[in-house]
Give the backbone structure.
Amino acid sequence: MRLCRIKTKFLLPCLASLSLVLSDVGASACTRLVYLGSNGNVITARSMDWKSDVATNLWILPRGISRSGEAGPNSIRWTAKYGSVVATGYDVSTTDGVNEKGLEANLLWLVESDYPTFGKDSKPGLTIAAWAQYVLDNFATVDEAVAALEKEPFTIVTANVPGENRLTTLHLSMSDASGDSAIVEYIHGRQVIHHSRDYQVMTNSPTFDEQLALNAYWKQIGGTVFLPGTNRASDRFARASFYVNAIPKGEDPNHALASVFSVIRNVSVPYGLNTSEEPNISSTRWRTVFDHKRELYFFESALTPNTFWVDLKRIDFSQSSKVRKLDLGENQDHTYSGDATSSFKEAPAFRFLGL
């Protein structure tokens, strides 16, 4: 398969942009954004929006763990080079996380995803449940990850969402301490990588190139004049893109953090909201915000009153250390406050869902 690596800007006439807005239906509502501040202050935020409990817990995963792509005999295998802190989905996948080098990976829904056919003659298989973990385990920067992914060392293998009769269709975003970003999608069975520091925002449908075209339209109007306000992915993309660059870029890291939290909350979906004509637009279950410079991974559940954080500087990621879990409870309703790093408890490692 031939790789497409895209670094160009996309512009469409206003009418074409509007037609894409009208066609943006049925998109799951997650948002990811990267704040680029002064003095090398980089902050990545994401919301997790899902129609039911995604059964998320937080895990500390040390270096040296041997992993399989969980795709049968023809699976890619590797050993974790870096330790990480991750948020799981159903405790069978890594949906969000950061590693000890400051690289973040996020998985968001993309219904247009179309993965390659996997067979005995394919490149080794990698379950989509471990796609983000593969990145966190192996790479320190976005540039390093992109260089490796361009060589297509694996074939992504997907299956149904746990407990549902629909295929898991996702795209991957990455960001690092330098502020670099990349978006990886599979369109018509081909890997497409968008790599640029300018790619600060990712939502869902349509594909990323079309999201850029839609955002170019809204930039012409100007965010202080009018911004689209619905829960649709393209509207959230426009709001996040405007606000993440409009908020102050001051030197106080706590003020920057507060601004970023304000933006990711602005593009969240109210808890309990269901859109009958667009059933895949779902409530925001939780949000994460990672301060790359201070190495603080913040977590905020919609059902608890407090935001808490994990301090990566306090974690022993050595190979001799143990896997540890922070139990967030059903619907992530367990309350933690402040620095929760010491609240993790030793636990058996979860296994990635595969074939």
